Amino acid sequence: MNDHGDDVQPELPGRARRRLRSSRLIQYLLLQAVIAVAGVAVLLQSLPGPPAQYQVTAFQLTEAGAERPVTLPYFSPLRNAMNDPPRFQGHFVRPAGETSQAWSVFLPRFTNGVEVTVNDVVILDSRRDPAANRPDRNTPAIAVIPASVLRDGDNAISIRLFIWGPISGFLDRIWVGPDEALRPTYNLRTLVFVTLPVVFSSWQAILAVILGIMWVMRRHEPAYGVLAAAMAVGVGQAFLQTPMGETPFSRLNVILISSAPIESALVLVFALLLSGWKWQRYAWIIFIPGIALALAGLFGNQALVRALFLILAVPMVGISLLIMAVVTARSALQRQNVASFLLGCAVTIMLTCWIVDLLSVFQMMPNRIFTARLSYSAMLVAIGAGLTWRFARALNQVDGFAGRLVTQVREAEEKLKASFAREEERARAAALARERTRLMRDLHDGLGGQLVSIVALSERGNGSAGIGDAARAALKDLRLVIDSMDDIGGDLMLALGSWRERAMAQLRPHDIALDWRAVTAQGLPVHPELRPWHVIQIVRLLDEAVTNAVKHAEARRITVRIETLAGADGVERGCITVEDDGKGFEIASDGGAAGAAKTARGLRNMRSRAARCGAELELSSCAQGTRKGTRVRLTLPHRFPDSDGG
Amino acid sequence: MNSLSDGPRAEAITVVLVEDDAPTLWRLQDALAKAGYQVRAAGTLAEARACLAQGAPKVLLTDLQLPDGHGVDLIRETRQRFPDTEIMVISILGDEESVISAITVGATGYLLKDAFPTDIAATVRDLVAGHSPISASIARFIVRRTQSTPEPPPGPVLNTAKLTPREIDILWGIAKGFSYAEIASHLGLSRQTVPGHIKSIYRKLEVHTRGEAVFEAVQQGLIKL
Asked: Is B178 part of the contact surface with chain A (CB cutoff 8 Å)?
């Protein structure tokens, strides 16, 4: 079972991951399909028109010398025939009672240019309007018919349709009627197809500036620079005028026609860079259509440019959109990236519009409203939203980083404080050691030598043993004082090590054995709060115990036990026991010795020393039996008191 | 002088004793003479050099503060001239300043001036037998010097870089008052090897080659190359 489980288990996460990934892909594709369907549904909605009674659809078309009746809307084949444009001739009736109203001719859509004549008077030539000259802009036209031209009853209207490509000519239904009936529709179309694109182009200009600044400040993210360039090209395309006629200046302007493939190539590069792709040298081919078109504009004639536009620019836009759709879908799915997701949706909208436009160009749609350029605004919105999202996320990251930094700085500060305290402690210890060294030198040169001299002299003469003992005791105490000043780092064992040597030297002449037993391996617990005066008290107390055993107990052996005891409260406490096998004594009710006054004073001293260190002292003595002798048991406090408790 | 009266054990053991304080000199001399050592006493550096000129002693015991110089010079000279002589410094307090400075020039132990006569004799006997005594406070001092600190603590400079971790463990044991037997059992050693380790520690602390002495002198700016 286990073996089988081991084999299967590594697969499970992979399978689950794959399932999760495919379900995400399906969700994404479904959403894009919904967006595309919604887009098509919106595009199929025809814009509201003026009242049907003013519509004029029946015309007599004169084209290439032939004359035939046609019904608008009419698609005219692409001919380079500026001098012999198709001519539509029709009639409309103005009722006699409406003379007070101004009448207008309203042309919602035409490619590329129209000249409208009413009763042989030209009232409109769209070629003078640069915006109207762009086939991709769906610019409507309206012209008020001068009252002097208009007649009651039947009126003749003639429209010449100028076609200069790159797409075939088109003339939508036209309306002739009271200006107030036609004007609202015209205004709606102007708003949608003229004003709105200007607003978006302004937005694009702002984006170009923002992205440009971003790229200048963050050179390591070329995606922003590429997108800024794309935006700048788009803005140039939108706002630069395209004059008609062949002049050297217009020849330069022809380059503008290459803006669509160049802009789409730049946006494609941006999308690729955003998805983590690295720039490759071969990627320059993306720009070949745009550059070829620009060169054709510079060196070829307009007919060539227009032919090339259909071959190069339109497919280039479509291919770019397709690649972007794939790339952004991958990026949105794999990285769960909101910016890529928004971009993907925008690409879907644009792709839908592009396909519909293409169908329209090939006359497979009933009208000719180009929406690809307009749908580009979806892309601009997505870019703006994506940028804002990235900016907000970066700000959040900065906040989080700042928060972490504050925590780290606080931690570092605390560490620094601790290390400063350690440093101070070390400096204090060093000062103490220096002081000790100085004191020792002074004592060594003076007092110590004199005491030794006294010892030597008292040993030579007779009956001066008292001096010798006193001097010897003075020397011993001197060594104790000096020793206790040494920095032992809170380890009392280091002080006891020296004390052992002194005690052994003291006991050897009396032929008393010192049995030293460190019961627990590390001896006593370390007390960082241990100060020299604690050490002196403890060592003097132990000295007192040993001296008592030597002088009064007639002991043969002294045992020193050193151990660490775990108390009932779980706190470890050091314990030092000095035991002798001497004759012992009776302990009085007040805790002192019942016998000699000297012993009593000694015991009182020991108790007071223990109390000052916060230690517990236990005395027990037995005069006879197997447990004969005195036992001094010193239990050290868990923490030595800061101030002198005595 | 007392000589050759205590039997064959101490027959060949000659001790040069250098101490300027007369009573202390008598005391040490008596203690050693009673134990059967052949003692040559000197009160000054010059007298000590004269004694050494008579031949290599087995043991040199010397005070550090002498009227006409410092005992460290005498120890260094003796170590160079007579590598087999055991050298001990006589100290009042057994303080690290005097003991360590003696160790770095070749001493292998120290003797307290007020030690009991029997202890004095026993210490010299141990030294001759190859045991170098080391006190808890000296051991503590040496161990402390092995711990690297940014600012060297006060006191004599000591090169502890050559000590092995085992030797440092032994010094810790001594500093904490453990006996050789206890240290040996803690560290898994034979008890007899502990004195040998201590001797080795002393030797390592000694600045004993001519090259090193020159190096030290250059370091201290005494010699300009």
From this structure: yes
pLDDT at B83: 86
| A458 compared with A619, residue with greater pLDDT | A619
Does the pLDDT value for residue B101 go beyond 80? yes
Please name the residue of chain B whose CA is at the shortest distance from the CA of residue A486: B137
- Which residues 16-55 of chain B have a CB within 8 Å of chain A? 21, 23-24, 26-27
Sign of CA dihedral B19, B21, B26, B32: negative
Tokens at B95, concatenated: 């303080």
Instruction: Answer yes or no: do B24 and B124 share one domain.
Output: yes
CA dist A357 to A167, A303, A368, B204, Å? Answer: 12, 22, 8, 96
What is the pLDDT, as a whole number, of residue A1?
A: 39
Q: Which among A456, A478, A501 is the nearest to B136, CB-wise?
A: A501
Query: Model ipTM?
Result: 0.76
SS3 B83: coil
Tokens in use for A101?
């109203």
B4 lies in some domain: no
Q: How far is CA B57 from CA A507, B11, B66, B78, in A?
A: 32, 12, 20, 10
**Within this chain, do residues A259 and A392 fall inside the same structural domain, yes or no?**
yes
Q: With 0-12 CB in 10 A as exposed, 13-18 as middle and 19+ as buried, what is A43?
A: buried
Q: Give the whole-angstrom CA distance, residue A339 versus residue A341.
A: 5
Chain B partners within 8 Å of A442 (Cβ): none
Per the structure, the complete domain to which residue B198 belongs is given by 165-220
How many domains, chain A?
Answer: 3
The alpha carbon of residue A505 and the mean position of all alpha carbons in its chain are separated, in whole angstroms, by 72
- Could you tell me which of A53, A179, A154 has the C-alpha nearest to residue A104? A179
CA A129 from centre of chain: 51
Sheet holding A174-178, edge to edge: A55-56, A174-178, A103-107, A141-145
pLDDT, position A285: 86
pLDDT tens per residue across span A320-333: 889 888 988 888 88
pLDDT band at A534 (very low <50, low <70, confident <90, very high): confident
Q: Give the pLDDT score at A249.
A: 56
Residue A275: both structure tokens together: 């998805």
What's the pLDDT at B91? 85
A443 interface with B at CB cutoff 8 Å? yes
Cα–Cα dist A479/B35, whole Å: 27
- Residue A172: CATH number of its domain: 2.60.120.260
pLDDT digits (tens, 9 = 90+) for A48-68: 888 888 888 888 888 877 888
Chain B interface, best mutation among A439, A496, A498, by max B CB count within 10 A = A498
Determine if the pTM surpasses 0.80: no
Where is the domain boundary, B146, B179, B208?
Answer: B146
Sign (positive or negative) of CA dihedral A354, A357, A362, A364: positive
For chain B, what is the domain count? 2
Query: Rounded to 5 degrees, what are φ and ψ at B94?
Result: 70, 25
Helices (H) and strands (E) in chain B, counts: 10, 7
Token pair listed for A365: 């749609």
Please indicate whether, in this complex, the C-beta atoms of A444 and B95 are within 8 angstroms of each other: yes
